[in-house]
Amino acid sequence: MGNTATIHTGAWVGDTERTLTFPETWTVNTYGPKEVPKITEAQIQDAFDNPIGSARLSDLARGKQSAAIIVDDLSRPTPAAELIPFVLQELADAGVPKNEIRFVVGGGSHRPLEPEEIDKKVGADVAKKHEVTSHNFMSGDLRALGSLDSGLPIYINKVVADSEFKLCVGGLYPHGAVGFGGGAKLILPGVSGFATMFYFHTFYASRGVGNIERRGNEPDHRDAAEDVARVLGLDAVVNVTLNRKREITAVFVGDFIKAQRAGARYALETYSTQVPEEAVENTDLVIANCYPLDYDPIQAGKSLWPLRKFPNAYKVAINPATDGICYHGLFDRIDYARFCMEKARQPEQELPVPQIEGSDQILMWSEHFPVDDFYKRNNTGVLFRDWETLQNQLIEKLPDNARVAVFPNAAIQVPT
Questions:
Q1: Burial of 111 by CB count in 10 Å (0-12 exposed, 13-18 middle, 19+ buried)?
Q2: Residue 97 CA neighbour count, 13 Å, CB half
């Protein structure tokens, strides 16, 4: 308690520590995930030496003449570059030809990564030595692999489908559709085609944030992703959990179901956040920091659950949205090149003078969130470009002895 809160902000662009200072008469409580230290390289190696539910990667890949390593994009905070050297060593031990090891950014229908972003994700040295491509969900040369019994048509990235060994490297983060990321999610939707993703998003039930197993009898998004991964022949995954600073806290290597479930259970343990009922009733201001999913503006929605938990409090989200591009091709129904052309023809909207009216509004502090996209998604919200202006208006609205609740990593915290 006190009148300050320390948060991190700016995933992929510095991961800066920042202290928020409030009036001296205010009381600030921080509700964060469990404090877990960064693991060592020896501990990462131990995870590769002891895979979950499968042989080690070098044994799985032995005799294979090509490999595809699928990684998530910068909308996810996974520090894949720290894991890839361990993966490459396993493939070298297996005898997979170095020039036949390719990386695919499995961003689903997100935009392709720029070269400097690829360097951040996989490491500059790896990007120089290996082919790295971003998945194009509207590509005309996807591989057709039939359909599931449910009718879901399976179209997969050609590089991935044609490779003899297939591995996903990603993170375990709370997700409304599949419970937790990781596992087969980098296959569907990660490297799937438009028709596959459309069916997936339209005709399957959501598992719900933080739910590890299916609820009910109907197949859900996680089931569909894993069924597609089986058809494709996904060999294994490398999944991680993170701490408050975006550091790796645990690594789960092995079978894409068993390793993901083990990782999800650990993620639930470390990300779970309990908020006392007394705090819910008496908090005047709640702040949801979107870190570590604060690069892509669209991901802000994953951080807003604390704002809904405190219906009577003023509500603030902190999201620098450094990427500044609100593109999700599946829902925009358009490829990225045409999206950019249409954006270029539209005049940039000026920021309206921000003014807080009441506690029912979502107030966002963001340096880069596009004005038109923000108000399209939050028609009653208010966008602020600087903290001082936002705080001064809050001081006018809140009592002298205001109580503040801060969620420093709202995007990966799970309410309990």
A1: buried
A2: 6
* Consecutive H or E run containing 358: none
Which DSSP string corresponds to 363-380? Answer: EEE-SSS-HHHHHHH-TT
Residue 188 phi, psi dihedral angles, 5° rounding = -125, 110
Count of beta carbons in the 10 Å neighbourhood of residue 297: 26
Residue type at 52 in one-letter notation: I
| Residues 179/212, Cβ–Cβ less than 8 Å | yes
Helix/strand number for the chain, H first, E second = 15, 20
Nearest residue to 254 via CA among 67, 81, 87, 63: 87
Contact 166, 67 (CB under 8 A): yes
The structural domains of the chain, ordered by start, are: 4-31+274-415 (3.90.226), 41-270 (3.40.50.11440)
Contact between 303 and 287 (Cβ < 8 Å): no
User: β-pairing, 179-180 with 362-365?
Assistant: unpaired
Residue 305 is encoded by which pair of tokens? Answer: 């659950």
Cα distances (Å, whole numbers) of residue 236 to 44, 255, 287, 304, 343: 16, 5, 38, 32, 39
Inter-residue contact 203 to 185 (CB < 8 Å): no
| 3-state SS track over 174-223 | EECCCEECCHHHHCCCCCECHHHHHHHHHHCECCCCCCCCCCCCCCEHHH
Tokens of 385: 């470009």
Tokens of 146: 């039939």
**Angle 41-49/84-94 helices, nearest 10 degrees?**
40
Regions of the chain short of the pLDDT cut 70: 1
What is the C-alpha separation between 155 and 195, in angstroms, rounded? Answer: 7
Question: What is the value of pTM for the model shown?
Answer: 0.97
Q: What is the pLDDT of residues 51-108, one digit of tens each?
A: 999 999 999 999 999 999 999 999 999 999 999 999 999 999 999 999 999 999 999 9
Residue 316 and residue 314: Cα distance in Å, rounded?
Answer: 7
Nearest to 103 by CA among 78, 80, 74, 137: 80
